[in-house]
Write a structure and sequence with these properties.
It is a single chain. Helix content is 14%, strand content 43%. The protein is mainly beta and 84 residues long. The protein has a 4-stranded antiparallel sheet with strand order 1-2-3-4, covered by helices on one side.
Length: 84
């Protein structure tokens, strides 16, 4: 499983970091060259407005040919896409 965490650093100060969003990308098939993944992304409420959870599936993902940022981009695109 990949876990993605987004932190807000007020004025770049890591001691005041606040987690504002989390996501996970989980392989739901046997480990192989091509896999299926379930994706979940959630945000902490911002100014009283909740967003998500956003869910998606990635099918036939060529895990040996793609890197970590590529699967994160694909998962976010599938789950969040053009969310407004």
């Amino acid at each position: 499983m990949l876990q993605i965490t987004i932190e807000l650093l007020p004025d770049g100060d890591e001691t005041r970091a606040a987690v504002i969003a989390r996501g996970s990308i989980s392989n739901v098939t046997d480990v192989g060259e091509v896999c299926e993944y379930v994706c979940l992304f959630e945000e902490n409420p911002w100014k009283g407005q909740s967003r998500g959870p956003y869910c998606a599936e990635l099918t036939a993902w060529p895990r040996s040919e793609r890197g970590a940022w590529e699967i994160v981009l694909a998962a976010l695109s599938a789950a969040v896409g053009g969310a407004k």
